[in-house]
Amino acid sequence: MRTDGEATRARILAAARTEFARYGLAGARVDRIAAEARASKERLYAYFGDKRSLFTAVLEVNMQETTERIPRDAHDLPGFVSAMFDHATENPDHLRMLDWARLENEPGLAPQTPCGRPGPTTEDIVRAQEQGIIDPGWDPDDLVVLLLSLATAWAQSPQSLFTGEPEEASGSPRRRDAAVAAACRILNPKPHAG
Fold first, then answer.
1. 3-class DSSP state for residue 179?
2. What is the domain extent for residue 103?
3. What is the CATH number of the domain that holds 25?
4. Is residue 192 part of a domain?
């Protein structure tokens, strides 16, 4: 059972997620967050200290949610891409927050979470490379960045600007299948015809 303080803190985080995803750190307003959360600004500051700390707290919650939902099995990197694709299209606010964090370009703004990045760890990929499951020619960190980029490409693409297609279509099964197929080709490229 949640205490009143825990419930208020959760409402503040939810309201802040919406506000920061829409306006970023610089454009977000604490008074709007407090009003949406049905909390006083004083309570918000008591829990989080300042707007920047609240932004970082939301990033940390987003990262924790993402890492909890995404498989970490280095033996199934296409499954990782599929799960990340679904998560990105179902939670576009998580990606917008990361975009704002990059745009704000403030040192130390990125979340420092014990859960690490979503997906398999560098060590898991190295072990899979040693077992011959993943091409050892890939730098493990580069590989995860490439696979994350594939998984989130449509969620971050302004395709409606170019195709007239509605944003909801970014999560289509056809696009998920395309991302997974591309991951499979990266992981197991076909030899070039001579």
1. helix
2. 4-187
3. 1.10.357.10
4. no
Length of the chain: 194
Q: What distances in angstroms separate CA 103 from CA 3, 54, 73, 100, 140, one per listed residue?
A: 36, 17, 31, 5, 26
* CB of 92 closer than 8 Å to CB of 85: no
Question: Which residues 6+ apart lie within 8 Å of 183 measured at CB?
Answer: 77, 78, 81, 147, 150, 151
Domains contained in the chain, number: 1
Predicted model pTM = 0.81
Q: What is the pLDDT of residues 120-152, one digit of tens each?
A: 888 999 999 999 888 899 999 999 889 999 999
Max CA-CA distance within the chain? 70
Whether 54 shows a pLDDT value over 90: the answer reads yes
Comparing CA positions, the residue from 157, 90, 83 lying closest to residue 120 is: 83
**Cα gap 58→135, rounded to integer Å:** 36
